[in-house]
Every structure is written in C-alpha cells, then in structure tokens.
C-alpha cells in the first residue's frame, strides 16, 4: 500500500476537485463517498470503487472493514491525517473515503415505469434536502426517484452522506424536466404536491401503480406548467399556523402516505 503525503499529488488534487465541483464530477464520471458506513454501502451495492483512501488510525480502528474494502477496490492509499482533512468534506473525518464511478441506473428505472411508485423532484436545490428525500424513499420502499436536470447534484458529497447510502440502492433517473418526463409517460398517474386548500388532501387518496408524486423547489414550489402536466393536485392537511413544510419533510410525509 502506498503512503501519500503531498497535497500536490495528482490523485489528491483530482479528489479535491471531485469534492468541490459538480462539473468535474460529471466530466470524470466519478464522485466521493466518505465515512466507514457509506464506503461499505458502496462496496455492498457493488459500485465500482476506483480509489480507497484510509488513515492509519482508521485502518487500525476499523480493521475488518479496511480489509474488505482494500480487497475490493482497484487502488488503496494510506494518507496522513492532515492530507485526509484536505480531501474530506466533513468536520470530523472518520478516515475512510472512496472515489466511486457514477451509477448507471437507467435499466433499473425503465422497469419501474411499468408499475412503480415514484417521487419526482423538480428544481430541488438543497443537498441536505435531497439526501433526506433519498433516505426516506429508500426506507419506506419507494421504487424510484426522478430528478429534473436543474436539481442539485445527486453526487454532491453532502447528498451522498445525507442519503446514508440510499444513493447506492434506490434507482433514480435524471431528466431534462419533470414536465417533459410526465408528458412523455402518460401512463404514469401524477400528483402535484401544492400548498392549496382546494387541492385533494393526501390523506384521502389511494395511490395507484404506476404513479409519481411531484415535489417542487424549496422556495417557489412547482411551476404552473408542471402542475398542469400532472394528473392531480394534492396537499398535506395542516392544523397549525405554518403555511408550508420544509421540502424534505413534506416529501417524507407524502412518501409515508404513498406506501402505508
């Protein structure tokens, strides 16, 4: 195993770019997964791991996981704690970080469109929200996620970490726009989540298959054209004084209603 100590090493410099830049992640077809559990999830999901970085202390502390990952990954490098902090995206690094090939889930998703229940995210911008939605969707058994092309990057380190490994397990599809996706797939019954007392309460519905519940931007919700492309408009009944819910909280409530 090779020890890396220099920040100007090309492998280190490329990893830092993957951490910081969605454009670089798309260009390279790579992203980072950090933390013992997330790295193990990547391996158990049979993702292709190009590089595994580990500190000596983390190797000793998590020796069983280290042996499994180092045997699975294409290349393993030991790095100093200072260098690991340089490539890490967390304030308290665990000493495990993998560089992973982007995931091709298009074939999985094509089968879901026949009879699955899906969440569609339109212009969701907060990586923490997206990570939470992925985690909730995977936990409650949603079949797949549709993302508009102007959502935040699903391969952002914050999304990957916030999803708690769900990004490796749940099928997802990135499309140009949710509106165009729905118009191209009229067999999918679609439900626009809106803040409107005149919309159908989600608690009164049974969700058919295939179907998609569409959730909009954190600040602006769904556009009029996206709502028009949906089959129905639905709302979450609220008795308190709050006008709306956080996007990831609303998504979690809707996911529960879809799958209960």
Keywords for this structure?
Alpha/beta knot; 42% helix; alpha/beta; five-stranded mixed β-sheet; 260 residues; 21% strand; elongated
Any overview of this molecule?
The chain contains 13 helices and twelve strands. By secondary structure, it is of the alpha/beta class. It has two domains: 2-101, Ribosomal protein L30/S12 (60s Ribosomal Protein L30, Chain: A, 2-Layer Sandwich), CATH 3.30.1330.30; 106-259, Alpha/beta knot, CATH 3.40.1280.10. The strands form two sheets. A seven-stranded parallel beta sheet has the order 8-7-6-11-9-12-10, with helices on both faces. A five-stranded mixed beta sheet has the order 1-4-3-5-2, with helices on both faces. Helix 8 packs parallel to helix 13. The radius of gyration is 20 Å and the shape is elongated.
Number of domains: 2
Structural class: alpha/beta
Helix content: 40-55%
Name of the top-level CATH class of the largest domain = Alpha Beta
Strand content: 15-25%
Major beta sheet summary: 7 strands, parallel
The CATH architecture classification of the largest domain is 3-Layer(aba) Sandwich
Which residues sit in consecutive blocks of at least 5 with pLDDT less than 50? Answer: none
**Total strand segments:** 12
Q: Looking at the chains present, what oligomeric state does this protein adopt? A: single chain
CATH topology term of the largest domain: Alpha/beta knot
Count of alpha/pi helices: 13
Taken in chain order, the helices and strands follow as EHHEHEHHEHEHEHEHHEHEEEHEH
- Terminal CA distance: 49 Å
Strand order of the largest sheet: 8-7-6-11-9-12-10
Shape, per Cα inertia axes: elongated
At the fourth level of CATH, the homologous superfamily of the largest domain is: SPOUT methyltransferase, trefoil knot domain
């Amino acid at each position: 195993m090779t020890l890396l100590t220099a920040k100007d090493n090309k492998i280190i410099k490329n990893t830092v770019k993957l951490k910081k830049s969605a454009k670089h992640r798309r260009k390279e077809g790579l992203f980072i997964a950090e933390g013992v559990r997330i790295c193990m999830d990547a391996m158990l999901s049979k993702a292709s791991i190009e590089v595994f970085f580990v500190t000596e202390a983390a190797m000793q502390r998590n020796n069983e996981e280290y042996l499994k990952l180092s045997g699975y990954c294409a290349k393993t490098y030991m790095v100093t704690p200072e260098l690991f902090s340089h490539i890490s995206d967390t304030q308290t690094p665990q000493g495990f970080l993998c560089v992973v090939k982007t995931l091709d889930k298009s074939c999985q998703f094509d089968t879901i469109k026949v009879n699955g229940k899906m969440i569609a995210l339109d212009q969701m911008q907060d990586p923490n929200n997206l990570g939470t939605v992925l985690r909730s969707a995977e936990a409650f058994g949603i079949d797949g996620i549709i993302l508009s092309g102007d959502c935040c990057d699903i391969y952002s380190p914050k999304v990957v970490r916030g999803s708690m490994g769900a990004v490796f397990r749940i099928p997802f599809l990135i499309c140009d726009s949710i509106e165009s996706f729905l118009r191209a797939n009229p067999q999918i019954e679609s439900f626009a989540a809106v803040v409107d007392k005149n919309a159908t309460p989600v608690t009164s519905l049974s969700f058919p298959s295939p179907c998609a519940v569409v959730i909009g931007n954190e600040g602006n919700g769904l556009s009029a054209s996206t709502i028009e492309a949906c089959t129905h408009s639905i709302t979450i009944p609220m008795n308190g004084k709050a006008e709306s819910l956080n996007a990831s909280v609303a998504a979690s409530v809707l996911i529960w209603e879809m799958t209960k």
